[in-house]
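Data deposition worksheet. Section B asks for the primary sequence of the deposited chain exactly as it was used as input, without tags or linkers unless they were present during the calculation. Section C holds the resulting structure in token form. Section D is free text for depositor observations; keep each observation to a single sentence. Incomplete worksheets are returned to the depositor.
Section A, Depositor: J.P.
Section B:
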Amino acid sequence: MTGVLTLHRTSVGKKVIMALTGCILVGFVVFHMYGNTKMFMGPDEFNKYAEGLRYLGSPVFGYEHLLWVARLVLIAAVVLHVWSASALVTQSRKATGGMKRYSEHKRHTSYAAYTMRYGGILIFLFIIFHVLHLTFGVVGYAAGQFNHPGGGNYDIYNNVIYGFQNVPISLFYIVTMVFLGFHLFHGVWSMFQTLGLNSATYNTLLRGLAVVVCAVVVVGNISFPVAVLTGVIQPV
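Section C:
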């Protein structure tokens, strides 16, 4: 029992925490992207989806109860993911002979380190901005342009379109999605290895799965601002 409770202090424990929280976050990113594709089905379908999220589990659960549970789980996953990543970097630097090993492998790991470390920082900042932008509407909108959901008003469709009509914000979104793609590819692949799913028999399949997840998420997410900027999707 003591070993389990102190597992988070070891590098293996931190890697497991990072892998499990990464799995939660990847699942959310895929689901979130899939749900947003309903934008292409028109405002009625997309607004029904947005409203349905707030009534998940009804009538057993009340309005937004499960949605807030999901939000709290995601917040915890983000915090633990960032903590474990930071702790592993610090632990690696402090390890005996760490600088020597870093020098020897820098050429091989610099690309992964860049996309995971600095890309991760960009993604973390983007999450904060994304919530302030499309969830709460406190940035990126003209006065009275954002329709706060609730009370039968679920005009999320127009919220998203007006939000992406801001060109700098859409470009920031697109650039971040590219970094998210690199982060996902390396992260999903590393997650398989950490959880012991890296046998030679399945390596090709798992690497291919990581590529597919990365491509689907990036292309799907980028399609939303591009569709708005090109006029494929317009406000109603």
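Section D:
The chain has eight helices and no strands.
The two ends are 58 Å apart (CA to CA).
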